[in-house]
Amino acid sequence: MARQTLLGDGPPRKLDHFRWLYAPDLLSFGYALRTTISALIALGIALWWELGSPQWAALTVWMVAQGTRGKSIAKARWHMFGMVVGTICAIVLVACMPQAPLLYLFCLAGGIGAFCFIGTLLPGPAAMTNYRIHGMRASGFTYAIIALDGVLAPDHIFEIAMARATYITLGIVVETTISSLFQYRLENRARNRLASNFVQALDGVTRTLGRLLQGDRSSVSTSPEVFSTILTLSDQVEFAEIEMGKHKHEGDHARAALAAMTVLMSRGLDLAALLQVPDSEGGHYQQTAAEVSRFLQTLPGRVDQDQPVAPVLRDLDALCATCRQLAASCLDEEMVAATHTPVDLREERVISRQGQLLHKLGEMMDELRLALEQFDMSRTPQPHDHFRYAMRSYRDWRMAFTNSLRASVTIFCSGLIWVATAWPDGLTFMMFVSIVCALFSTLEQPALATKAFLHGTICVIGMCGLLDLWVMAQPTTYEMLAMCLSIPMLLGGLAFAYVPLVLAAVAYNLFLPILVGPLNQGRMDEVMYFNTALPLLLAMVFAMWMYRVFLPFDPDGLRWDMRLNILRGLRRLASQRVPELPSEVVGRSVDGFVRLSTMTPDKKSFVLNRYLSGVLSGMTIGLNVLRLRAILAQGVLPPGAQRATQAMMNRMQRFTGRYGGQYGRTARATHLAVQYLVQREQVETNLSVRVEMLRALASLRVIETELEQNRDFFDASSPYLDKAFS
Questions:
Q1: Which pLDDT band, with edges at 50, 70 and 90, does 115 fall under?
Q2: How far apart are CA 726 and CA 723, in angstroms?
Q3: Torsion of CA 107, 113, 163, 175, to 10 degrees
Q4: CA quadruple 29, 30, 33, 38: dihedral positive or negative?
Q5: Which residues contact 420 (CB under 8 A, 6 or more apart)?
Q6: What is the CA radius of gyration of the chain?
Q7: CA angle, corner 39, sides to 72 and 76, nearest 5?
Q8: How confident is the model at residue 36 (pLDDT cuts 50, 70, 90)?
Q9: Three-state helix/strand/coil letters over 111-165
Q10: Per-residue pLDDT for 103 more than 70?
Q11: Per-residue confidence (pLDDT) for residue 422, from 0 to 100
Q12: Which of 508, 513, 536, 506 is nearest to 439 (CA)?
């Protein structure tokens, strides 16, 4: 008899996606609680002072508050700066053209577009956590709300601007003061966070390089999350610096350590390319690689928990000495094989390649030693330390112009809707559109951000409908008002601490005070509520639609532009009079790599993987071009080897990849240079010359291998359309 299925049978339903609500962790609940308290205190002070729009003080608290003290202070500083800039620009705008509506709208839209343009060019990633960019967002935000409020009363623009500046300043001061009371041993925790960030990045790097040394030659190129982690942790160093107060360059050393790990990954790419050459594995290299792999597996645990780095550095020095000794032994054996007849060319070739691999492995260990030394200096600062390692900035002027134009056109179109329809609430509609454009136009994918923002807006409209039409009619004192608002605000804080709901929570927390609209002599009735909620909802829908219609995010075009920039960069590295620093090449390439890896949800996409591999390959070729330029500048190579290498560099100076010819000629010139240097190196008896030839030969082989392995990326004889590879 078949078993009857009961209603309660089966696995229990998973509610993990609601865990942020019913079982938040202590840090998330602490953030939500202190921010709710700060917002209510700011609101209470604004009501006590009988300010005209007290909701802006509570809104500013939610806009500035962050999970850590360093982030809150950094964001507060830049928000204050943006408020000052936006206030001045708004006063100038209203004073100059109060009677020219279209020109007024044009200048308003152009001003916010200019802020977006400047923000896109500032250092750091195009993310909501980049508070330098947030300064420009705050400028556009303040510029919009003051300028649009001043439309109806241009004679009182100064009073309006001072009132808005007072709200914002009050919110910043209250949030900064309250959050400081919740901090304990802040400096020690900041130092510990720096150390834990380094260990986290080191763990990913060592696992990736360990797989490479165990035989997985594509481990580095298939690990985009390692580069993303390093870049993200490097951007967070400045927050720890703020929390440490009067620091001794710990943050500079931490940034240098993370940058050294990025270069370490590039050394791994060189090693992976050399392993593609036939007759490369086995012998001394195989045994040494196994020892290094075992060392890397235990390394993260040995530098964690405040353990001294000196024993680790001693073991690392021993491995480096082994690599150098074995590489020198291979060179001696090769010299003996080359000077004693009969010469076994195959044996000499195997010995030469073993020496090159050991030399590259030694260079990789040297870079690891530099990272560990910088980490140790960040953990144990030294007196009279003047080390500096500034944040790098890689500007994209085309993206800055696109972001600026997109924001300006969207705001101007919203203004035209207001003017053409004479909608009584059109000014409110335009203000919300301007706020959204100021906040999200600097992001790479604003359409996705505004979609999440729309979800949060719908939630806050529903919550405020409940509050305005039922709950808020009852309280008659501030204490009861605060009690009614505490639970909705606490929910918004918990949602903000849950990463998948961050953008929706931002919309919820920002618009909750606006839709509640607390006043001393009034309440938000149903008419005011609907006249505010409807423009808000329509503004979110309009902004999201404009981001999808006008200059939408085009991943195919972004990938194609990045590919052309890489080809131009290789030509520039081979031809410019003063070559770039290797750190600049690595930083720019990793920045592009991370942008590519985050633009597509499907991380296993064939096209995306081809492009990611091509970006790393371009970085590897560029670094080896710089090494070849240094070797050629020394003039140690024999005349024939010098000419062959220079011929390859001449082809690289004209490398475009177009029409098949330039790619084929560059690859052929590289192959011919490798063949000539192999033949010339086998009969060279001068030891110093032979060492330089082996260095040049290693770089040429890496370039040759990368051009061959990533031909689809570098050969532009076909348009390399993504649909052809889908």
A1: very high
A2: 5
A3: 180
A4: negative
A5: none
A6: 30
A7: 25
A8: very high
A9: HHHHHHHHHHHCCCCCCCCCHHHHHHHHHHHHHHHHHHHCCCCHHHHHHHHHHHH
A10: yes
A11: 87
A12: 506
Contacts of 552 (CB under 8 A, 6+ apart): 447
Q: Does 366 have pLDDT greater than 80?
A: yes
d(CA 222, CA 609) in angstroms, rounded, equals 8
Token couple for 342: 């009969």
d(CA 160, CA 148): 10
Q: Closest by alpha carbon to 592, among 118, 126, 116? A: 126
Backbone dihedral angles phi then psi of residue 371, each to the nearest 5 degrees: -65, -45
Span of 62-66, 94-98, 503-507, 508-512 with lowest mean pLDDT: 94-98
Start-to-end CA distance of the chain, whole Å, equals 51
Please tell me what DSSP assigns to residue 716.
B
Q: Decide: 393 and 117 in contact? Cβ < 8 Å.
A: no
Contact 261, 226 (CB under 8 A): no
Report how far residue 452's alpha carbon sits from residue 299's, in angstroms, rounded to the nearest whole number: 41
Strand partners, 658: 716
Average confidence (pLDDT) over 464-492: 86
Q: Is the pTM of this model over 0.90?
A: no
| Nearest in space to 438 (alpha carbons), one of 82, 71, 129 | 82
- For residues 626 and 579, the answer to whether their CB atoms sit within 8 Å is yes
**8 A C-beta contact, residue 566 and residue 625:** no
Dihedral sign for Cα atoms in the order 545, 547, 549, 554: negative
Q: Which tokens go with 312? A: 């680790």
**pLDDT tier for residue 342 given thresholds of 50, 70 and 90:** low
> Between 251 and 137, whose confidence is greater?
137
> Residue 37's pLDDT is what?
93
Looking at residue 615, its amino acid is V
Q: How many residues does the chain have?
A: 726
Q: Using alpha carbons, select from 291, 564, 350, 531 the residue that is nearest to residue 426.
A: 531
Average pLDDT of the chain is: 83
Q: Which residues make beta-bridge pairs with 716?
A: 658
Instruction: Supply 75's token pair.
Output: 């964001």
